[in-house]
Amino acid sequence: MLIQMLDETMATIRTVAQDNRFTLHSQETGTVLQVGGGIARVRGLASVTSEELVQFPDGVLGVAINLEPEEVGIMLLGDSDKLSAGIRVTATGRETDTPVGDGLLGRVIDATGRVLDGGKPLEFHERRPIERPAPEIIERAPVTTPLETGIKSIDALIPIGRGQRELILGDRQTGKTSIAIDTIINQRDKDVVCIYCAVGQRATSVAKVVGTLREHKAMEHTVVVVASDDDPPGLRYITPYAATTMAEYFMEQGQDALIVYDDLTRHARAYRELSLLLRRPPGREAYPGDIFYIHSRLLERSTHLRSEFGGGSLTALPVIETQAQDISAYIPTNLISITDGQIYLSPTLFQKGLLPAIHVGKSVSRVGGKTQHPSLRSVASDLRLAYSQFEELETFARFSTRLDDDTRATIERGRRVREVLKQHEHQPLRACEQAVILFAVNAGLLDDLPAEKVTEAEQKIQQHLVSALPEICAQMDAGKKLDDEQWQRTTECIQDALAEFAPSETDDT
Ligand code: ATP
Ligand code: MG
Q: pTM of the entire structure?
């Protein structure tokens, strides 16, 4: 009986071995010399490779990043409380990887795939390395489709295209996250998959963002990848790379994806912390010498692929926090030079209540202009000029009370433009709703209206257009040109909507 059982077991082992499902491999182990600050120094892992995943007891993972002849520097991806000198560490032979797949949508996870939303276990397609080479030049196509943010001042004046990298920068509490979240919300019915990568933020801020996305039904097309400020620096450092791998999965399926890195200042600080603990030589602002490279290799992975390679795209919105409005500091200038444009948020505008606090003069989009909807493009160029002339004149006009009629008209028009560019957060607008109000202010149709009535009039005009001229709306939304007759009908529609704002007889007397 016993012999028969033994025979059967041997037979199974042989079959498994024949199927190649059963391979023997040796595991290299080392000993921890020192742990602290999210770093472990290990002796004995002689053949470990750079970026290889290593495992400590209790399942804590680490990544080998400093390979020296005598010892290896490991950044920890988990809690270091239970680790101490003398414990064993095993090399896994695996590159650091992250789960990818459609099952990630709607989930809140960390870079290693740990579920943070308390839901069911994560379903994923496969695991892919977090560091992957950026697409070759030959695989890349020009940016041709707009990525609509639903924010008037961005879509009209600083348009972003799918596959572009547009930096959002500004001091703390100037509305950087709001712009990124509004853009994600606006992708609701536009089949753009979104990844929100939160690095080094407080857990409460991330919870607020997830709450906002849920409230606006934007979680279904979004993955939230988090490394909060109490996570070890190693995890904060790898999170943007892991999030990009997750986004690349969608791009490689031929889909359009959007990734928000909120924010890369904290990412750079995590890398500085690691580098200093690993005793790498500090450079400017104590950052290590390869600080430019960590961001350039990350953002190079965003692109628009040619149709032979699937035709997908990955748009990146990195966020950077400036100190005391200094956009010429080290990390901001690095990022400005890597990206295809920037949206600068000014604390002065924020304090004046001009929200979103976008400083049009200091913001630019280097590639998105070509993708802009024709209906918006036709109004936007005049708008930018009128607005910058107004800003100049407004400062000048404070010193003098006597103004000629032209100047007064420019200032009055500018005031209305400024009112029109105001927009409350989480209220993204359709392309037609944006185009009609910008057209109205440009054509001078709002000139007779008191500035404080502009917001109310705007809503009336938009509602009227959507209900009265749905075919023109659809054409504007689809990015088609309108002919003169259609613009004429739009003008009449605006005038109808404004009729109730006209001064009454009693006002005249
Ligand atoms: P932090 O530096 O803390 O990350 P931030 O620059 O990301 O801040 P937000 O958190 O987006 O800024 O916004 C700061 C505050 O301003 C929030 O309370 C937000 O509700 C408000 N806010 C931002 N944009 C608008 C807007 N367009 N309309 C109304 N309120 C806004
Ligand atoms: Mg923020």
A: 0.91
The residue contributing the CA closest to ligand 1 atom 13 is 175
Ligand 1 atom at minimal distance to the Cα of residue 319: 7
Amino acid at 277: L
Report the binding-site residues. 170-177
DSSP state of 69: S
Testing ligand 1's pocket by substitution, the residue of 185, 261, 425 carrying the most ligand atoms inside 8 A of its CB is 425
Return the active site residues. 366
113-169 pLDDT, tens digit each: 999 999 999 999 999 999 999 999 999 999 999 999 999 999 999 999 999 999 999
Location of each CATH 1.20.150.20 domain in the chain: 377-508
Buried b (16+ CB within 10 A) or exposed e, 447-470: eebeeeebeebbebbbebbbeebe
The 10s digit of each residue's pLDDT in 443-501 is 999 998 998 899 999 999 999 999 999 999 999 999 888 899 999 999 999 999 999 88
CATH fold of 377-508 reads Lysin (1.20.150)
Residue intervals in the chain for CATH 3.40.50.300: 98-371
Q: Give CA–CA dist 490/21, Å, rounded.
A: 69
Q: Which CATH architecture has domain 98-371?
A: 3-Layer(aba) Sandwich (3.40)
> Known binding site for ATP: residues?
170-177
Cβ(355) – ligand 1 distance below 6 Å: yes
pLDDT digits (tens, 9 = 90+) for 245-304: 999 999 999 999 999 999 999 999 999 999 999 999 999 999 999 999 999 999 999 999
Cis ω for the linkage preceding 290 (within 30 of 0): no
Q: How far is the CA of 212 from the centre of ligand 2 (A)?
A: 13
Q: Is the CB of 266 under 6 A from ligand 1?
A: no
For residue 128, what is the enclosing H or E element? strand 126-129
**Unique residue bearing structure tokens 């037609």:** 432
Among residues 199, 248, 249, 250, the alpha carbon closest in space to that of 226 is found at 199
Name the residue of 149, 154, 177 whose CB sits within 8 Å of the most ligand 1 atoms, as the mutation to test its pocket. 177
Report which ligand 1 atom has the smallest distance to the Cα of 178: 11
323 in ligand 1 pocket by Cβ < 6 Å?
no
* Cα distance between residue 287 and residue 275, in whole Å: 8
